[in-house]
Amino acid sequence: MSVGDFAQRRVGLVGRVGRRLAPTSMAGYISATRTLLRDCQEWGWCTRRFDPATALATPRSVRAMLGPKPRVIADDTWAKILWAGLNLEADDLADAKIRAYPLELVRALTLTWLFAGQRSDEIMRLRVGCIRWQQSDGADPAKPVCLLDIPVHKTGAAFTKPVDPLLGHGIEAWQAVRPAQPPMIDRKTGEATDLLFACRGLPVARTYINATIIPMLCHKAGVSQSDVRGRITSHRARATIATQLYNAKEPMTLFELQAWLGHRSPETTQHYAQITPNTLTKAYTDAGYFSRNVRTIEVLIDREAVLSGAAAAGKPWQHYDLGHGYCSYTFFEQCPTAWLAHVAIFIFRSRAAGRRCWRRGRMLIGDWHGFR
Q1: pTM to 2 decimals?
Q2: CA-based end-to-end distance of the chain
């Protein structure tokens, strides 16, 4: 099945008609059919002749392709977008034809998207007074820590996270000029709150970041609004920030990153904490795969035997390190003494491991006698 099959209304499918369905779409169609047949059987509309949960289970090949796939923005592109957000001016709003909101609101919203690492819905539901300053316990106590209060979100309860002081100063600048407005209803909790990003008694739309902020920043930074991974959206900043924190010079641990992102399970954080090729290359190099698998021989040379001429008479003058001592046998790989030493070490360890390993050691002893 392809995109557009059996569809009467094709608005929004321009450029995608004929493509293969995404794994999520495949699983959705199967789930909808399975649910329909199950309900028909439960309501008595048809005879129960099979189990839809078994007969219409999502195939393993489709389930293997399911799962979150955060699309990280390239470092050079993200750096340009970050520069554009830090240098946002009133002329940029005029070029983007943004007349609805003041500069302080747009700047605070932009910095929140660039530094908070939260979903767009959570950003739009921030409350007035969400920024708090706390005395630092680090190397510089004179610099207070900026804390951001995140409301109840998609996967958990409200929590507090540290953020860059630039974000705190930007939000405080907007709160200083924010006009007094009546409380508004939180879309998720249903309570009346003072939403931070609101103007003229109306909250900022959830689509404002994707529809206005990101195109404006891309235009100012001189980058395209899409890359090889697709269109740059608000959620891609969350994946980018998480990946950079996980691959930093002094990276955050998986559990620290889980707490910073607000995830309930570390399994979800693993999808965001992607290891960059540079970090993976350094780890692979430090592991020393080649040096571990290629046998390196340290040779000890007896200089006295060489200088006295005893080496020419056949006296050993080269000694090879076998790991447990030195051996003068040149082809030490075939040396029966070295082989027996390794067998003895194996038998000693195997006997402590159990009767089965001891029998294996006796077999090696038999091989040793045959070799000798």
Answers
A1: 0.67
A2: 68
